[in-house]
TrEMBL record, chain A:
Keywords: Cell membrane, Membrane, Protein transport, Translocation, Transmembrane, Transmembrane helix, Transport. Residues 246-349 form the SecDF P1 head subdomain domain. The chain crosses the membrane at residues 368-388, 395-415, 421-441, 470-489, 495-518. HAMAP family: SecD_B. Part of the Sec protein translocase complex. Interacts with the SecYEG preprotein conducting channel. SecDF uses the proton motive force (PMF) to complete protein translocation after the ATP-dependent function of SecA. Forms a complex with SecF. Part of the essential Sec protein translocation apparatus which comprises SecA, SecYEG and auxiliary proteins SecDF-YajC and YidC. Gene3D superfamilies: 3.30.1360.200, 3.30.70.3400, Multidrug efflux transporter AcrB transmembrane domain (1.20.1640.10). Residues 352-519 form the Protein export membrane protein SecD/SecF C-terminal domain. This is Protein translocase subunit SecD.
UniProtKB/TrEMBL annotation, chain B:
Residues 319-328 have a biased composition (Basic and acidic residues). Its main location: membrane. Pfam families: Sec_GG, SecD_SecF_C. This is Protein-export membrane protein SecF. It comes from Sphingobium cyanobacteriorum. InterPro entries: SecD/SecF_arch_bac, SecD/SecF_bac, SecD/SecF_CS, SecD_SecF_C, SecD_SecF_C_bact, SecF_bac.
């Protein structure tokens, strides 16, 4: 037990040295760390509760995605059957209970209709399932039902696009080191450190940024529009800033140009020094816009964002240059935000914030300071207590605790783990429990001495008997820690990481490393009596 | 140097003799704790009930009544205020607006901020949390699941590795620890949030650590003194490990004491829970789990049978012959 070969000594010391080296960069300023070799660029990340910042959990409504898909399907079916050759007349189209159903007017064409619709569906999943099921009921009604696999696929791809769009938007805002991660099926976690005002961020992420240009329906009867009724081929949309009467307006259903045809959007000012967004279309978008505006001079068109009309300017002359202005009672800030949102593309699905945690930088700094002071006092108090109780062996335990603290930081750096406020609590607790292993060993040595064993034998027995207990106690402790890590959220996780790393490293430092120190002392001094 | 010895050598305290009294006391306290939890309820934080929590820091001391009056005029729902740590920090809790989702919660924060700044110049919101009902439901579910799984996992480990009596006694003792902690939070009405779940799990971890040490010594002594009466054997084991129990509880308490006094207000509830848990866990190691072993009928012979059947403990873990001096 007390004989260590050179190799064994090296094998014990090497990981400790590496661990300590990896902990060093955490205490150095950024500039110095940049000069270090790559393997030492390991730093413990500070959690948002320490660094200050915002944590947002965004959730997409899967129902929204499903609804949108069904609407797209409806559009495709209409186009395919009405415009294709031969034309198949359909009616009674309804999208209810998540299903699309319609009647084929001529029963003889039902089979032909099904043949034409089938290719609109796509494979989904590995089981050969389609994303929609097409069935005929009552001999003339066709029902199209989305399959679960199809919905799952759609949600998955919508979330991937959404994550990308969010990343672009946050990058455009110029925020430092954001973390954007998909979580579960339909959630995205956004963490932005050091943000002073999360309001702007939330406003930006809350916009779907679906931009459309549509013609205003001039034939609509204003009093009917006010009641929400529009002529065939038109729809009533909210228009909060309507200068002429009620906050609604009737627009044609057909889209002139949409945000997909944008190449750029910037914030600017119009001739009245009002904030606006200048947009530029791509080739086909510009052509479409030019064409429609040429045909509709002196009629108004509506600029629609996320289903709301921003403004409805008059077309004074054909707009041919491929660029346009979006006006609509903006402030410079909100115009800038819209420009960013338009540049990064529309979100495929609306996101809502279901959880937000924001910590001001002041509180974060206070917490770090408090945590540091508490840790130092805890270390000093425990170290003094250990020294008073076990003398030389107490010092060994204290060296082990000090190394342990550094190694935990080092391992956290290597793993890229994040230190949170509960993590600091985990640290302080680890300091308290790490010496437990030493206490177990030393009390055992005391006992063995009382039983009359010699110095060397008592130390050997102390380590051997206590090691088994320590191992068992720590395995069970690790079970609790592992469950915390697996099931915990936020603070629980941050605490569990430190606890688990601490359990692993403390067994090593408190048992193996102190045994090395004790063995060295026994071999060089050959004591006949120990003060323990 | 004369070393500090908190527990004299070779103590021989009769822990087991008063175990029936202890059981009665434990049962009474546990019933009280459960009763308090059921009737008074826990002061659940926004993590678990959803809502809005704002921590406001004022430039000078402030009366909570004034803050409450200011918020009362805003029509953002009923507020619950709590001052913690220093008299310049106030925690404000508000219900989430029922409609409008996250944007609406945002608006409430802004509205409150504006009103507060107008009334108390220089006030800042040092942190705020918004948790929707859906997320809080998941958090509570995960939290409860974590605690339950941890207890079961540990009990099963203890059972498979040794005799079933150890599994049962450990399980009962840890459930007792958790219930006492819940009772403490119900009685003090301290806020019960996600951090406290971490604290409860740590208490579970610490408590099991403590029980393992004593259990391990009991098993060692069972192999060593096969004829000894179980009560005497448990007394011996608890006495032998007493110095370690005291030392370790003290070092952990020292560390936690530093955290309680200097660790800042955010961690105060967490630390308080931990300190209570250490006391309760240490108590239950002696008076719940160890004493329960006798009631459950554990004898050295039972242990030996199982060890032989499994064919490991009898040989691998048996300690060698030794001169035990004064001991029987």
């Amino acid at each position: 037990m007390l004989n260590f070969s050179r190799w064994a000594v090296a094998a014990i010391l090497l990981p400790l040295v590496i661990g300590i080296l990896c902990a060093v960069p955490t205490f150095l300023p950024d500039a110095t760390v940049a000069k270090l070799p790559g393997f030492m660029q390991t730093r413990v990340n500070l959690g948002l509760d320490l660094a200050g910042g915002s944590h947002l959990l965004l959730e997409a409504s899967t129902q929204d995605v499903a609804k949108q898909r069904l609407a797209n399907m409806e559009e495709q079916v209409r186009t395919e059957l009405r415009r294709g050759d031969p034309r198949i007349a359909i009616g009674d189209i309804s999208a209810r209970d998540g299903k699309l159903s319609f009647m084929v007017r001529n029963p003889a064409q039902v089979d032909a209709a099904v043949e034409r619709i089938r290719p609109l569906t796509q494979g989904a999943g590995l089981t050969g399932q389609r994303d929609f099921n097409v069935e005929v009921v009552n001999s003339s009604t066709i029902v199209i039902t989305p399959t679960q696999a199809g919905i799952d696929n759609a949600v998955k791809s919508a979330m991937e696009v959404a994550t990308e769009v969010i990343r672009k938007r946050i990058d455009e805002m110029g925020t430092r080191e954001p973390t954007i991660q998909q979580q579960g099926g339909n959630r995205i976690v956004v963490q932005v450190p050091g943000l002073q005002d999360p309001k702007a961020l939330k406003d930006l992420l809350g916009q779907t940024a679906k931009l459309e240009f549509k013609l205003v329906d001039m034939t609509a009867n204003p009093s009917e529009v006010a009641q929400g009724r529009a002529p065939v081929g038109s729809e009533v949309l909210p228009y909060p800033g309507n200068p002429a009467g009620p906050p609604v307006i009737a627009v044609k259903r057909q889209v002139m140009v949409s945000g997909e045809d944008l190449t750029d959007a910037t914030q600017g000012f119009d001739q009245n020094n009002q904030a606006i967004v200048n947009i530029r279309f791509n080739g086909s978008g510009g052509r479409k816009f030019g064409q429609v505006t040429s045909q509709n001079v002196n009629r108004p068109f509506a600029i629609i964002l996320d289903g709301k009309v921003l403004s409805a300017p008059n077309i004074n002359e054909p707009i041919l240059g491929g660029s346009a202005q979006v006006s609509g009672s903006f402030t410079v800030e909100s115009a800038n935000q819209l420009a960013i949102a338009l540049r990064s593309g529309k979100l495929p699905v609306a996101l809502t914030v279901v959880e937000e945690r924001t910590v001001g930088p002041g509180l974060g700094a206070d917490s770090i300071r408090a945590g540091l002071i508490a840790s130092i006092i805890a270390v000093v108090a425990v170290a003094a207590f250990m020294f008073l109780s076990y003398g030389r062996f107490g010092v060994y335990a204290n060296i082990a605790v000090a190394i342990n603290v550094l190694v935990i930081l080092g391992v956290m750096g290597i793993l890229g783990a994040t230190l949170t406020l509960p993590g600091i609590a985990g640290f302080v607790l680890t300091i308290g429990t790490a010496v437990d292993a030493n206490v177990l060993i030393y009390e055992r040595i005391r006992e063995e001495r009382r039983r009359g064993r010699g110095v060397v034998q008592a130390i050997q027995f102390g380590y051997k008997e206590a090691s088994r207990t320590i191992f068992e106690a720590n395995v069970t402790h690790a079970i609790a820690g592992g469950i915390m890590l697996a099931l915990g959220s936020g603070p629980v996780k941050g605490f569990a990481i430190v606890l688990l790393i601490g359990i692993a490293t403390s067994v090593f430092t408190a048992v193996t490393f102190t045994r090395l120190l004790a063995a060295r002392w026994v071999r060089t001094k050959r004591p006949t009596e120990i003060n323990i | 140097m004369k070393l500090l010895k908190l527990v004299p050598d070779n103590t021989n305290i009769g822990f087991v003799a008063i175990r029936n009294w202890a059981f009665a006391l434990t049962a009474l306290l546990t019933v009280l704790a459960v009763g308090a939890t059921v009737y008074k309820g826990l002061n659940l934080g926004v993590d678990f009930v959803g809502g809005l929590m704002i921590e406001a820091k004022f430039p000078q001391n402030v009366e909570t009544d004034k803050v409450r009056a200011t918020i009362g005029t805003l029509g953002v729902g009923e507020s619950a205020l709590q001052q913690f740590g220093d008299p310049r920090t106030v925690q404000i809790r508000l219900p989430l607006p029922e409609q409008g989702g996250a944007g609406a919660a945002n608006a409430v924060v802004e509205k409150t901020r504006q009103a507060m700044v107008a009334q108390f110049p220089g006030v800042t919101f040092s942190r705020y949390d918004t948790v929707s009902g859906k997320v809080s439901g998941e958090l509570i579910q995960n939290g409860v699941l974590a605690v339950v799984l941890a207890i079961i996992g540990i009990a099963v480990f203890s059972w498979f590795r040794y005799e079933w009596q150890f599994g049962v006694s450990t399980f009962v003792a840890i459930v007792h620890d958790v219930l006492m902690t819940l009772g403490f939070f119900a009685i003090t009405q301290m806020e019960f949030d996600l951090n406290i779940i971490a604290a409860v799990l740590t208490i579970v971890g610490y408590s099991i650590n403590d029980k393992m040490v004593i259990d391990d010594r009991i098993r060692e002594n069972m192999r060593k003194y096969r004829k000894m009466d179980m009560k005497a054997l448990i007394d011996l084991s608890v006495n032998e490990t007493l110095p370690r129990t005291v030392m370790t509880s003290l070092t952990v308490m020292l560390a936690l004491g530093a955290l309680l006094l200097f660790g800042g207000h955010v961690l105060r509830g967490f630390t308080a829970a931990m300190m209570l848990g250490i006391i309760v866990g240490t108590y239950s190691s002696v008076y719940v789990s160890s004493s329960l072993l006798i009631t459950l009928g554990l004898t050295p012979q039972v242990a030996e049978k199982k060890a032989t059947k499994k064919g490991y403990a009898g040989t691998a873990e048996r300690v060698g012959p030794r001169d035990d001096g004064a001991r029987p």
